[in-house]
Amino acid sequence: STLLAQAGVTLGLVLEVERNFSGAWTRELGTLVLGVVVLNQLLGPVLCRVGISYILDADKGYESDLDQIAADRHHEDSSDSNSGSSSTSGTPSSTINLTSRLTLGSLTSRSSR
Fold it and tell me: CA dihedral in degrees (16, 17, 23, 24; nearest 10)?
């Protein structure tokens, strides 16, 4: 609905330009802007949906990677507690999980460029 309102304002401005200015360029400008508005109205929603689906797919992969890191950390923590040594040297597990998420997030954003 907002795309339609924006298109209406744009077309109104083009009509004002054609009315207030003379020359061959006003007709060409009107034709160009009309074509861009039509393309935007047709392709904009479709491409927006495609972009959102890419984001959602990437987010699902990111969550599964985080789940795997958490499972690995849990496995390491339980192994360390059984052997009596701690590799985290008293660092709370929430800090380790946050660090893992930040590291994974920066790696993921670099690989998606």
Answer: -100
Does residue 101 contact residue 66 with C-beta atoms inside 8 Å? yes
Q: Give the relative orientation of helices 24-83 and 2-20 as an angle to the nearest 10 degrees.
A: 150
H helix runs in 1-113, sequence order: 2-20, 24-83, 93-111
pTM over 0.70: no
Structure tokens at 3: 């795309």
Digit-coded pLDDT (tens) for 20-39: 988 889 889 889 999 999 99
Burial class (CB in 10 A: 0-12, 13-18, 19+), 34: middle
Phi, psi of 89 (to 5 degrees): 50, 45
Contacts for 27 with CB less than 8 Å, ≥ 6 apart? 18
